[in-house]
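OP here, attaching both records as promised.
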Amino acid sequence: MFYKAYNQNAMWFVQKIKRYNVTVKYIKNIQQEVFSIGFPVTYLNTLNLKPFTAQNIDNTASNLCCYTITQQPIKTTNYISWCANLPRPNAQPIQTIKPYTNIRTQLQNFNMAIKTPIEAFEFLIQLKKML
């Protein structure tokens, strides 16, 4: 069985406890990236969380266990900076326009099916600069 920590909690765990690899996943329903780490239940038992005053919070679901770490505030600016520095999966470079090619060729070669809306918008900006 594994525990998972998400977003600010994942950041706190990685910075204060152990440097786990953080998974970055875009969730379509909430239109946001979610940052998470996973670790085995046995690892939690080996930790000394007393300095961080871990509190076990009971939940309605019998198989769900939730811990809250108190007295360790997380600054929003630190969290935003931490998120920005995490590597993203399948990060593809934006197709750049070479000065010796024309706009029609660039449009024909641009594969919109695999691009994000932001990448498509940046591509249009580059095309506009060629005019």
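Record two, same layout:
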Amino acid sequence: MGELYQVDMQYFQMWGLPDASTPLVWRFIKERTGSGALGDLGCHGLGLFSFVIGKEYFKSNKPCRYLCERTKVTRWKGMDFSNVDDYYNYLA
């Protein structure tokens, strides 16, 4: 394949759109999930990255949140806050 200069992994799914109308489901609450985007899906991308480049060497940036406030999914109306990352940028 030659020398690699960049490997890019992206995963998009409608349920996690950065939109306040996206409900605050279990996946956006740290006490229920234990992690955010990195633990949920990013670990698979990092595994694939290690496989492709043939080594495990990573430096990372901080996780971030595009949208903190989401609609509650209860019979009560209103908004509540997500406390997990919904985006993670990883550099290696």
